[in-house]
Known about the structure:
Elements: E1 13-16, H1 23-37, E2 41-46, H2 52-65, E3 69-75, H3 78-87, E4 92-96, E5 105-111, H4 125-135, E6 148-151, H5 155-162, H6 170-173, E7 176-179, H7 188-195, E8 200-203, H8 225-234, E9 238-242, E10 249-252, E11 258-259, H9 261-272, E12 280-284, H10 289-297, E13 301-305, H11 309-319, E14 323-325, E15 331-333, E16 339-340, H12 342-354, H13 360-364, E17 371-372, E18 376-378, H14 383-393, E19 398-400, E20 405-408, E21 412-418, E22 425-431, H15 434-448
Parallel strand pairs: 2-3, 2-4, 3-6, 7-8, 7-9, 12-13, 12-14
Antiparallel strand pairs: 1-5, 4-5, 9-10, 10-11, 14-15, 15-16, 17-22, 18-22, 19-20, 20-21, 21-22
Helix pairs in contact: 1-2, 1-4, 5-7, 9-10, 9-12
Amino acid sequence: MEMDSGIFKAYDIRGTYPDQMDEEAAKLIGQAVVQLLGAKKVVIGHDMRLSADTLYPKLTEGLIEMGCEVIDIGLCSTPMSYFANVYFKADASLMMTASHNPSQYNGFKLCGKDAQPITSFFPTTEVDKVIRKWENGEGAPDVRMGGFIKHEDILDEYIEKICEGVEIDPEKLGKIVLDGGNGMAGLPTVEILKHLKIDFEGLYLELDGRFPNHEPNPLKHSTLKDLQATVIRTGAVIGAAVDGDADRIGFVDERGEVIPADMVTILIAKEMMKHKKDLKVMYDLRSSWAVKEEIESAGGSADMCMVGHGLIKPVMRKGEVDFAGELSAHYYFKELSYTDNADKALVAVLQLLSESDKKMSELIAPFKRYFATGEINFEVSDPKAKIDEIEGLVADGEKLHLDGLSVELSDWWFNLRASNTEPLLRLNLEAKTAELRDEKLKWVIELIGVEPIEE
């Protein structure tokens, strides 16, 4: 099989098994990453996907051939892989996962030293280029003697890190519901809740790479129906849904209503500001005006950033930013080497809720003072050209090119950007009234010239 170059995405590697990526591809990808980084000590782990049974041994074989000290943490979440990278002072880590993608997919999330995303060192396409050269007889993997493997279980150390300084009164908190989507939350997240003695009801916590119940993607509201119903049925105080590799998390309140991810950014920041008033926060440019307003009114600083973990993490590191939140339900923590971590986000939200006399819906009600569309997607032949065209048609407002085109006026704003992961144009819009939101949304859609994709 010839490996498909389309598997090399903006931030990671993922494709369908075995047609786009097979065992030999997994081996070569690992070897190319190690050679590009000059890595000697490498952490590897995998999620519950069925194809890991054959892909993972070939990855391991290739790394040992390269003379690496391979630290195999086995079945794990992506946040556990990040943690192990730092804990073992590794030169690189390769997490075998395809996140929330359907069961036929697999791939890699890659890091260099200190859990820095691989894109801080080179684009993933460089891995493809190296492999193509080898296939064309231009060089070969730098095979060396002395490679060996160590099997390590870091779950206890990971739980200790996530729960460090956390004090939650389980009785005051009450029952929560956790939907694991048959993904990796069934391992670390469950054990964290048990460690904290939190009363929880679980949905789909069995690790099953076929995802028999629903796609493990908390951004799709259709995947949250069972969680919402269970929260209402059990009288739980909150519900949480975690994606396949457990680095993203979505929430519903005690009424089963979805809590927008930017409102969660405010909640976590406010919890963190109990311990550090001058908290430095970043929020992605699709977030509500309320994020900046709430954080700054509480004494912190809040700056807008681009979309995507490969772009957010280096900026956080450079500015020593304490926390960042993304509308895609990624939450990033300086104390975890600037990595995104669903477990830390969950613990922070539960701690805030346990310390409050208010229900979750009451806590977020003051933040919901504006009216947003949520992210709307469009299929256009050239997203960047369409953005340029629309900029020429919009005369008013302050324009920002941090990520695509943002236009801000006194009573509404919108952002248009090309997706980093799919051939789509993405729109987010917010206004001070629902009527203005609907009016301006209709106007922008007319400018785009095609109807949005039905979710």
